[in-house]
Amino acid sequence: MKIKAISKILGSLTVGLALQQPTQAVAQYAANKETTTKPNFIFFITDDIGWDDLGCYGDPNVKTPNIDSLAKLGLKFENAYLTTSSCSPSRSSIITGRYPHNTGAPELHDPLPSGQVMFPQLLKEAGYYTVLSGKNHMGPQTKHAFDTISPGKGPGGEGDWNQIIKNRPKNQPFFFWFASLDAHRDWQINDKGPIYNPDDIIVPPMLYDGPKTRQDLAAYYHEVSRADYYLGKIVRELKKQNMLENTYIIFMSDNGRPFPRSKGRLYDSGIKTPFIVYGPNVHQGKTNALISAIDIASTVLTLAGNDVHDNIQGVSFHSILVDGGRSEHRDFAFAEHNWHVFQAHERMVRHKDWVYIRNAFPEHQNLVGESTRQFPAGSELWDAHDRGLTVPEQEDVFLVPREHEELYYLPADPYQFTNLVFDKKHQNSLVYLRKVMDQWVAETGDSVPQNPTPDRDDVYGNRLPGEWKKGERAGVAKGALKTKEKGPRHIKDVR
User: Fold this and answer.
1) 385 within some domain
2) How much is the average pLDDT of 153-182?
3) In 107-174, which ranges are continuous DSSP H helix?
4) Distant-in-sequence, close-in-space partners of 494: CB < 8 Å, separation ≥ 6
């Protein structure tokens, strides 16, 4: 069935006119817990949308007018890092404010164990009406954090969100965790986003530029635009109910785009997230301040006037929201890659212009499902490699063995294609980041499993023969589930 493009409709639904810069008066509660006016929160988390796959982050392919308006009138973060580039462990990390190996759910499909503190649960206990709608993927423990949990409606799960806003108790502040299923495979096309022409797509350099990949990206961008459509609907509903001025809207993704060398990986294409905050007294513009996804829990609790639970490893960046990043927040952001269909144990630290990655299993290909032959872009990449048509920037997923360590200088190498580990000019940076990584591993109780979860599938997406079961999780041997240590955050913390 042919679906006509609706870019003109999307343009008419842009939220620019609905959004307005909130007044200073409304925001005074951020520093005054005694105020009777609590802020509201819309936490809009998308599924598998890459950090730079939005118009406001420079993507030339996609139309995202509502997200772009939010970025223009709020604060756009250029250096927001996830703690892992894998759906369920990323969400469990965000909701607890803890690193994946400290949540007890570091691998794909691991349910969050009982006893972990979730920040929406703390808001609920403080009188907030809390709802999760759309993708959950964190397990049954989330029932303790939300008054209502809905699977959502429609292909992207966003279909009941405005109704939730309308039907909320009017005598309570609210926190709504709206978790879009866009843009997760398999693609579902409808009339809530434009239909992109594959011939117009500019293909990222780590992908093979062929017809299957172009078609795959065109469908992906459709779902990105559908998420944008529903953000516009939310903003207009808040405006209609006179709630926009006292509501924080946080927009982000759980991991990188679902394509080779992105999702599941610790390069910026996988581990960075788009991150936009709009709300009372939020600075207007963009910031290069470094933040981590574990900081979200502390920040929301601080803005709500709540105490931050000592189980949370992240630190509030509320001061950045006010001053636009002039205050110091982080010198280091850490991330990890654990089992995601394929065996893995990688660790990453971002410091200033440098990224350092350590791989405990360099004898393995670095794969997730999206980088295999299972989906069109991956299949075309593998076929091109078989025929000798790929260039070095496209061959990362085929490397066996890999380097145990990787070092990248981002200003000269934004895609992290050139490993500088063996460059003598950069040995001081390498030695320093090794030391930082060692301290973080020791303080947070990370460990390399002796009996790790093995590969589950082959490169065609088929289950491997024989019995498969999960193995030891990272951090278990060191009691990471119970630790409250945060690891180094500033240069002065490094010993």
Assistant:
1) yes
2) 97
3) 119-125, 161-166
4) 435, 436, 439, 488
